[in-house]
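Submission checklist for the structure archive. All mandatory fields must be present; incomplete records are returned to the submitter.

[x] Identifier: 4-carboxymuconolactone decarboxylase
[x] Organism: Nisaea acidiphila
[x] Residue count: 126
[x] Sequence attached
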Amino acid sequence: MSERYDNGMKIRRSVLGDAHVDRAEAAKTAFDEPFQSFITEGAWGTVWASDKLTRRERSMITLALLAALGQWDEVAMHVRASANTGATPEDIREAMMHVAVYAGVPAANHALKIIKKTYSEMGVEI
C-alpha cells in the first residue's frame, strides 16, 4: 500500500473510530477492495489529510453535503464521528441551517431528525 493509503487509514480510524473501520475492513471483498482503497487514499489520505481546514470544519462541510444529497446513513455515521472531530451539536445545527437555505428545508428537516436520533443513541443531550 502507498504512504497516502497508510496516512488515510490513520485519519479514517481517527475520525470514524477503530470499530467502524474494523467492521468495514472485515466486510471488504476482492470485488470492492479497489473502491475501498480509492476512498482511503482519496477521501481520507488526500482531502481529510489536507491542513487547509480543520477536522471540525471538514466534519461540518461533510454533514452539510451529505444532508443536501440525502445520504442519510452517512449523516448518522458522520454525526457519530463528530465526537472525534470537535464539531459540536451547535456547529452541526448551524450547518443544517445552511442546508435549509441552499439545498432545501425538507433535506435539512430530515437530516435534523436523524441527527437528533443519533445524538440520543450516543447519549448526547441536545
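[x] Structure attached
Curator remark: The mean pLDDT is 97. Helices lie at 3-16, 18-27, 33-47, 55-69, 72-85, 89-103, 105-122.
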